[in-house]
Amino acid sequence: MSITTRPNGYGKPYVVAERLELLTGSTGGVVKLPRHLDWSGAGRYDLDSPGRVIDLYRTVLIEAASPADLHTYLHEATLKRLWSYLWLPPALRHAWEQRFPELAALSRLADAG
Q: What is the pTM of this model?
């Protein structure tokens, strides 16, 4: 597991997966996130709705407390497909792109297009 502190030093650190192939979460249906990931209490995400998939991925990436959160709720191919559409805090995006150059390449392609 890789942990990156948030830029201002406050709050919990970000979690980055060791390997993308460990991300084996659902790709369809409704997912309910536990409170530690979606503390608003409205943590139901319909993965068949494009906007809700993006919301789920952003929430999990920002709020993950352990690699298990990433493995359970994210899926490798979906993460790659959504990567350039996700608004993420710069430090979090940087941490993931440092570990996974293929994600950085996807960002560069989106910036060039």
A: 0.88
